[in-house]
Automatic annotation (TrEMBL):
Coiled coil: none annotated. The lineage of its organism: Bacteria, Bacillati, Bacillota, Bacilli, Bacillales. GO terms for molecular function: ATP binding; ATP hydrolysis activity. This is ATP-binding cassette domain-containing protein. Transmembrane segments: none annotated. InterPro entries: AAA+_ATPase, ABC_transporter-like_ATP-bd, ABC_transporter-like_CS, ABC_transporter_ATP-bind, P-loop_NTPase. PANTHER family: ALIPHATIC SULFONATES IMPORT ATP-BINDING PROTEIN SSUB, TAURINE IMPORT ATP-BINDING PROTEIN-RELATED. Residues 10-231 form the ABC transporter domain. SMART domains: AAA (SM00382). It comes from the Bacteria. Keywords: ATP-binding, Cell membrane, Membrane, Nucleotide-binding, Translocase, Transport.
């Protein structure tokens, strides 16, 4: 409906996930509002990628549930798309046909518009092998946006990019999200990236939410701002285990 966010709400309720005898997600409760941008950080093996896969419908909970809107999420949601660390483009298809992969009907005009939006209007007939890493991720982003998702999941999509290209992609994703207002969930190892992009940053520690920090900074975020630097430092301290649990600043775990 006009005037309402395009995103969908996501809620985990007493969520558990085990792989054989190993408990990876331990009773997690998290509420994400429609159109909200959430970043998840934590050490390797903490459970952040498992949580993303559960919300994506790629894995099923051991117990508890996930709600997409008011409905239980039992598989891959029709309005969900996911971006991975690599573009996962088909090398035998052109850029344009990778964007329209699996679509039927008259989709080429929309694909042209999205490629223009991501700065690749002049690459529509190129092969993926001729693109840089950043350009391949731009194609993957355009492909994800073709279906007008209400939920877009990001699994370290910028992790393999050089520093400047990474910043350009952060700005691109943020701009498109502000325009379309889909719900976003980003898993990243980069705490600064999380603070740059997210409305809230969630720190996961040993399968549980250890910190839930709202980023009360105007957009676009100014990395030179002292409050920005302090937030990055506080969150990084928590990820590295330098901060005691009682120092969870701005916490509003739901």
């Amino acid at each position: 409906m006009e005037g309402h966010p395009a995103g969908i709400s996501i809620k985990t309720v007493n969520l558990h996930k085990s792989f054989q005898s190993t408990k990876v997600i331990k009773g997690m409760n998290l509420a994400i509002t429609p159109g909200e941008f959430i970043a998840i950080v934590g050490k390797s093996g903490c459970g952040k990628s498992t949580l993303l896969r559960l919300i994506a419908g790629l894995d099923q909970p051991t117990s508890g549930e996930i709600l997409a809107g008011t409905e239980p999420l039992t598989g891959i949601h029709k309005d969900m798309r996911m971006m991975f660390q690599e573009g996962r483009l088909l090398p035998w298809l052109t850029v344009l046909n990778n964007v329209g992969l699996g679509l039927k009907g008259d989709w080429k005009e929309e694909a042209h518009l999205l490629l223009q939006k991501v700065g690749l209007a002049d690459k529509i007939n190129e092969w993926p092998a001729k693109l840089s890493g950043g350009q391949r991720q731009r194609v993957a982003l355009a492909r994800a946006l073709m279906s007008q998702p209400r939920l877009l999941l990001f699994d370290e999509p910028l992790g393999a990019l050089d520093a400047l290209t990474r910043i350009e992609m952060q700005q691109l994703i943020e701009g498109i999200w502000q325009e379309q207002k889909f719900t976003s969930l980003l898993v990243t190892h980069d705490v600064e990236e999380a603070v740059v992009m997210a409305d809230r940053v969630i720190v996961i520690e040993d399968g549980r939410i250890a910190m839930n920090t709202r980023i009360d900074l105007p957009r676009p975020r100014d990395r030179r701002n002292s409050h920005f630097s302090n937030l990055v430092g506080d969150i990084l301290d928590r990820v590295l285990g330098h901060a005691p649990p009682s120092s969870q600043l701005r916490q509003n775990v739901q």
